[in-house]
């Protein structure tokens, strides 16, 4: 595709009011009038300016959400009524998938054709939670054990939610917070990343179009200071955060000071354990496709590969061949298999980790720098290190880029020990043709998700991590529970009609 054609595919940004904030059901001017420049990661040019929220704007958004929860109709609707709005939002988002696919690749570097697949699944998140309106036990009988005749367990909305999302997969990660919170009856302040706010604005436009009551969903873009004001605000009952472990520690400490509810989906350094019976080239193919998706900017990426020492060199060679063949280029070019990193500082960070890997004596099998054929954009070559010591920096710290570390192990028990020797525990996978062995090893891995013969996560079931990879779960029924408080009700008789 020519440069002209790529520019044509990008087109104009399909947003109505990017210089505003969506608060209380209206598009309002930021209190300072300031804007944030959003940079196209492939061209390094500003392609969008959005309104910048400061503490006063956060206060206004929280006030709107608090009023909508305390005095508005939303928490007082039935779950079925709220589900109707969720289904309408799903339809609205289906109509905007193409629009979103013109924004997300520019912000985060995801290949556009890949973005269409993932964005196409976002409406289903709202449908999933709408379906739970009919099946989840929001109210169920419970037999009293200490007096009283009739008991109930009632699950009620936690209140006002502050949802904070990162720049890598903003639309999906926002929706896994917003959809269950809305079904539960909560109101939400969604804080978008300054680097990738576009799809959050699109979500606000959809909420407006379906007539979501004022203050139920508020959307703004802010940097760290205003974000901390959101976390500190005593009117916010729960914080749902996805981002770095360092930021998660700070949020957890602030929520702990006021005993606010919190869900944290944090970093990862996930292990792929390749057992001796599994085909090396099949493992290399699976790991390359997953490792280069979104340029490795995925918290659950299988970035550590643990394999027996006798097969180590063979696997490194297979991985290096496949990584070297990945076509790096503009996300809107149909020939591209991997785009740039999202922001310049991330490119700098990844290149610094690569330098540390070299200095520590790891064997650079392929990659290791900026692609020679690209003179602009935040690109890094797909990179494979072999002979990595699991105690080294590149094996222990989250790089968040297309860098794979291959670690030799002395047998299966050592491989499991190496996989577990990490401060993180977000994702893992076992590569073996023996199903019973796969299950047995999966139960030994300290990880929130364990896949088999592939990179796998499933928000439809539950997603989250052990150890420093987070607190709580998102997705599925478990993700709904995070937005509910459980109340015990004990009565001296059975009301008519009996709640159900």
UniProtKB/TrEMBL annotation:
SUPFAM superfamilies reported for this sequence: ALDH-like
Pfam family, one: Aldedh
Keyword tags: Oxidoreductase
Active site: 265
CDD domains linked to this entry: ALDH_AldA-Rv0768
UniProt domain Aldehyde dehydrogenase: residue ranges: 27-489
Family (UniProt): Belongs to the aldehyde dehydrogenase family.
Protein name per its UniProtKB record: Aldehyde dehydrogenase
Organism: Pseudonocardia nematodicida
């Amino acid at each position: 595709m020519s440069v002209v054609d790529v520019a044509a595919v990008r087109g104009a940004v399909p947003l109505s009011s990017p210089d505003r904030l969506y608060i209380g059901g209206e598009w309002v001017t930021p209190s300072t009038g300031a804007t944030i420049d959003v940079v196209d990661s492939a061209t390094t040019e500003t392609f969008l300016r959005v309104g910048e929220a400061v503490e006063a704007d956060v206060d206004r958004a929280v006030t709107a959400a608090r009023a909508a929860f305390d005095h508005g109709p939303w928490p007082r609707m039935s779950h079925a009524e709220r589900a109707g709005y969720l289904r309408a939002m799903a339809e609205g988002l289906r109509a905007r998938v193409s629009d979103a696919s013109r924004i997300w690749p520019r912000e985060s570097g995801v290949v556009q054709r890949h973005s269409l697949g993932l964005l196409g699944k976002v409406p289903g998140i709202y449908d999933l939670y709408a379906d739970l309106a009919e099946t989840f036990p929001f109210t169920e009988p419970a037999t009293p054990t200490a007096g009283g005749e009739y008991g109930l367990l009632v699950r009620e909305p936690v209140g006002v939610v502050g949802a904070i999302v990162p720049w890598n997969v903003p639309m999906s990660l926002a929706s896994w917070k917003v959809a269950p919170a809305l079904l539960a009856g909560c109101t939400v302040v969604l804080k978008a990343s300054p680097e990738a706010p576009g799809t959050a604005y699109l979500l606000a436009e959809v909420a407006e179009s379906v007539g979501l009551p004022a203050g139920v969903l508020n959307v703004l873009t802010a940097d760290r200071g205003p974000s901390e004001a959101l976390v500190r605000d005593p009117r916010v009952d729960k914080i749902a955060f996805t981002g770095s472990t360092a930021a998660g520690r700070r949020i957890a400490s602030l929520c702990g000071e006021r005993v606010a509810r919190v869900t944290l989906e944090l970093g990862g350094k996930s292990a792929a354990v390749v057992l001796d019976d599994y085909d090396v080239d099949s493992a290399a193919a699976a790991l390359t496709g997953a490792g280069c998706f979104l340029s490795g900017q995925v918290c659950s990426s299988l970035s550590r590969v643990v394999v027996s020492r006798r097969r180590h060199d063979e696997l490194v060679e297979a991985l290096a061949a496949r990584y070297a063949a990945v076509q790096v280029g503009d996300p809107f070019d149909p020939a591209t298999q991997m785009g740039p990193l999202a922001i310049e500082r991330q490119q700098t960070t990844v290149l610094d980790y690569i330098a540390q890997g070299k200095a520590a004596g790891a064997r650079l099998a392929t990659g290791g720098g900026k692609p020679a054929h690209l003179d602009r954009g935040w690109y890094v070559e797909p990179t494979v290190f072999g002979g990595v010591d699991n105690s080294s920096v590149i094996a222990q710290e989250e790089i968040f880029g297309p860098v794979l570390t291959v670690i030799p192990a002395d047998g299966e028990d050592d491989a499991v020990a190496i996989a577990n020797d990490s401060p993180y525990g977000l994702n893992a996978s076992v590569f073996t043709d023996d199903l019973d062995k796969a299950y047995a090893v999966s139960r030994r891995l300290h990880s929130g998700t364990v896949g088999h013969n592939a990179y796998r996560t499933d928000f439809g079931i539950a997603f989250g991590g052990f150890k420093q990879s987070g607190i709580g779960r998102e997705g599925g029924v478990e993700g709904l529970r995070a937005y509910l408080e459980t109340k015990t009700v004990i009565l001296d008789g059975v009301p008519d009609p009996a709640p159900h």
